[in-house]
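User: Could you check the structure of this?
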Amino acid sequence: MSEALLETRAVSKHYQMGATTVVALDGVSVEVREGEFVALQGTSGSGKSTLLNLIGGLDQPTSGEVVFDGRSLAPFSKREMARYRRHAVGMIFQNFNLIPTMTAAENVSLALAFGGVRGRARDERTRALLERVGLAERTAHRPAELSGGEQQRVAIARALANRPRVLLADEPTGNLDSTRAHELLSLLRTMVERDRLTVLMVTHDRELAARFADRTIQMKDGKIEQRMRDEG
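Assistant: Sure, the predicted structure tokens are below.
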């Protein structure tokens, strides 16, 4: 078996709420291999999004460590962590988080600019990304002129702009109807199989997880409850 691309080792996250300590994660250890599509499931408050944020470098664990490609994130400087967030992992969210005054192309191009891509190379990469997610004809449209499914496709193109090896998706289909949800996850599934993209997705939808993910990790009360492999 190949080494894990992404790993959490006994990761815990505590928050202080006045005199009360809230345990969001309690000793969570998971491994995700390159080219794997893994779903995280659990009730609200089970720790799914907290785990995703730690893996994405948006927050730091109280204890334990996150390891990417054999390197612990713990000793990373602010500059190294910013580079990790920009180039190693991409993130998409339920609410798309697009800039409303920018077109689809401008939203993607901005991510490339932050990644240091300039001039014609940036324009070409923007076009290629939007074509890859099926939006070649919608590049000049602003978010308000796009459907929810189209907005999420722009968000995927933006997240993949700087060629991350991992896509972290936090309820990416939460604001989509079932048809658009299936279309979106079919797109991600294709990217996993064709490009060896690694996807870790938080979802409440058991049917979507079973259909598109290689396996599901169930969480409860900040712990891993069980791991289920898709039989389909």
